[in-house]
Design brief:
The strands form 4 sheets. The protein has a 7-stranded antiparallel beta sheet. It has 199 residues and is mainly beta. Strand 3 and strand 4 form a beta hairpin.
């Protein structure tokens, strides 16, 4: 799910793997997010959010939405990648060309493990039956019938480089934007470091 919001951090989108339809009457959707995230702060301020379920043609949008924080970069402002439209009943922007778009008002939120469950009542929704959903399973994007190629790559690095990346990432499982990786004419792997003072 691509979760849209607005508020103190400005218009934003994040990818939420745990986006669940949990009730028909009333129609409720639950999302699970971390406290301190820009999306969490926006939703707690405005008490509303958009749920935009991505199609199998929107893997790049999901990569961008899940790879960065609004506190680092204005994801919705990157070129013309996100095609937005004005919601009917909420102030958060909505994303065009998704399989489902649902405008939600918060009815409840509570801590559960290391996430916060936010439950929204759907106040407006639309569904495009001509589109196929994007499926994320075991670290790979898939359509309903096949695996999709990902822009993510796995590389081998020395223990020294790994330890430096681990330090920069503050022992987090996911490390974002620490270094750019390029190969020179001799096919050697080079790192363009984010902060020369650290390296």
């Amino acid at each position: 799910g691509l979760i849209t919001s607005t508020g103190k951090n400005g218009p934003n989108v994040m990818a939420a793997e745990w986006t669940l339809h949990i009730s028909y009457d009333p129609m409720l959707i639950a999302i699970f997010i971390h406290k301190g995230e820009a999306t969490y702060e926006n939703i707690m301020q405005t008490r509303e959010f958009g749920v935009n379920m991505s199609t199998d043609r929107q893997a790049n949008l999901v990569n961008i939405s899940g790879g960065y924080s609004r506190k680092e970069i204005d994801k919705l402002g990157i070129g013309n990648l996100f095609k937005l439209y004005r919601a009917h009943y909420i102030k958060a922007p909505m994303i065009r060309d998704c399989i489902i778009n649902a405008e939600c008002k918060v009815v409840k939120h509570y801590n559960i493990g290391d996430h916060t469950a936010v439950i929204g009542k759907v106040v407006h929704a639309k569904y495009d039956k001509t589109k196929s959903p994007l499926i994320y399973h075991r670290g790979m994007y898939r359509t309903a019938t096949k695996k999709l190629n990902s822009n993510r790559r796995q590389i081998n690095v020395s223990k020294g480089v790994f330890d430096e990346l681990k330090t920069i990432g503050k022992d987090q499982f996911t490390l974002r934007c620490a270094a750019g990786i390029i190969r020179n004419s001799k096919n050697e792997t080079l790192f363009v470091k984010r902060d020369p003072k650290v390296w």
